[in-house]
Amino acid sequence: MSLRQTISSTTLGDRILLVFLLLASFAGIVFIKDVLPSSGGVSIEVQGKTTHRYLLNQNRTVRVESPYGHLTVEIRERKVRVINASCQNKLCEHQGWVTRGVIICLPARISVSVGGPEKSGDKRIDATTG
Amino acid sequence: MVLMDTLVTITIVTDSADRAEKAMDKAFAEIGKLDTLLNFFSEKSELSMVNKNAGLSEVKVSPETMEVVEKAIETSEKTGGAFDVTIGPEISQWNFVLKIKPQDESIKRRLRLVNYKLIQLDKGRSTVHLKEKGMLMDLGGIAKGYAADKAVDELKKIGITSGLVAVAGEVKAFGRKPGGKGWTVGIRNPRSTEKSDEIMATVQLNDAAISTSGDYQRYFILDGKRFHHILDPETGYPAQGCQSVSVIARDGVYTDAFSTGVFVLGPKKGIELLQSMGFEGLIVDKDGTIYTTPGLKGKIEFTTNH
């Protein structure tokens, strides 16, 4: 079947589907970028409140405390990891080096977002219905 | 129903770009697959095969189509027929773009074809049969919510623990956002004056879905009267009690279908039904009065600038 025949044999539905899939794929890319910014900063939240903000390209080690515990965040070569967490399971330590994403220490209620802080916190709307 | 006529967005939280990409692909593919099965306008969909064989023969369908039809019938039973996917013969004679209102006589004549009890399911052989010739099932009031559920299932299978899928206004969220917060979903104001996407309230979702049915989504005004796309299966005319109904529950398939059913039932019966189902909801009645289920307290925040 030639290309022309293939095209002429498509229905309107097929074409709508194609356009949609292209749009959907593009939307997917945009959203991945939105959720996982590839560069930017490190923001540390204690009990939901941002307490520290750093640039990813400046090496440092910082101790973070909350009423529930403490941990140490190490930023090096655009990567971030948690060391010396006060909790028992040390899940956040085991996560190792993170280049983008979030490290959450539930027992201490501390979260470390790598790749930029959230946009304007609570007021941001993730989706709309209606 | 045009599942794909609408914007689908998927947001996920993961620390692996590879996994994110893979999960997105799977979830979009799942929604695409459901569209090929359930699209009202596609000649080749299973739904169209069932409709073409109305009054003639039963049609073998996939487990997905079977499940959607089952849930649709279940919702019809729970809403006393206020939600009914056999509304097809009525809805297909309206045109909300060209402002075509059918003749009263024609609406009346087709009403006998609107009855979910005339859908015959054989689960053992996986067949669906519409008993009367001329019957038409339109799954537009349930398929998008179902698609959101299935897309979330696909994301979870890949190991994604947090994300949000929105198939038009059918939104399903799971897990928590970075920082431990729930997902924030805005509910559109049914009578916004300036911007069409003005938000009247926001709700926090954790492992739940939300859907909204409104008389402003597809409608026209004729002689000062609003005619919209949510038809009362009992009369064949647009339901009159509400402007907007939002329903929150675990499954998108239910929030989608019940938002339509509750819209038809009206605010009083609607809130009662939602409570008896253990669902949450917000209803704006025809005069603009807002009703909510008691459980919504603390989870909903009304915007002040409207």
Helix content of chain B: 25-40%
Kindly report the greatest chain-chain contact and the residue count on each side: A-B, 37 and 53 residues
Adjacency order of strands in the biggest sheet of chain A: 2-1-7-6
In CATH, the homologous superfamily of the largest domain in chain B goes by the name ApbE-like domains
- Got a strand count of chain A? 8
Figure out the total of helices of chain A.
3
What is the spatial order of strands in the main beta sheet of chain B? 1-5-6-9-12-13-14
Q: What is the overall shape of chain A? A: elongated
Order of H and E elements of chain A = HHEEEEEHEEE
Number of helices of chain B: 8
Q: In words, what does this structure look like?
A:
The complex is a heterodimer of chains A (130) and B (306). Chain A has 130 residues and is α+β, with helices and mostly antiparallel strands. Chain A has helices at residues 3-8, 12-35, 91-94, and strands spanning 41-46, 49-55, 60-66, 69-76, 79-83, 101-105, 110-114, 127-129. Chain A contains three helices and eight strands, in the order ααβββββαβββ. In chain A, a hairpin with a 4-residue loop joins strand 6 and strand 7 (110-114). The longest helix of chain A has 24 residues, at 12-35. Chain B is of the alpha+beta class and 306 residues long. Chain B has three domains: 1-40 and 138-172, no CATH class; 53-137, T-fold; 182-302, Roll (T-fold). Chain B is built from eight helices and 15 strands. In chain B, the strands form four sheets. A seven-stranded antiparallel sheet of chain B has the order 1-5-6-9-12-13-14. Chain B has a three-stranded antiparallel sheet with strand order 2-4-3, covered by helices on one side. A three-stranded antiparallel sheet of chain B has the order 7-8-15, with no helix packed on it. Chain B starts with 7 loop residues before the first strand and ends with a strand. The chains are: A alpha+beta (130), B alpha+beta (306). Chains A and B meet through helix 2, strand 6 and strand 8 of A and strand 1, helix 1, strand 6, strand 7 and strand 9 of B. Strand 8 of chain A pairs parallel with strand 7 (183-188) of chain B, so a sheet runs across the interface.
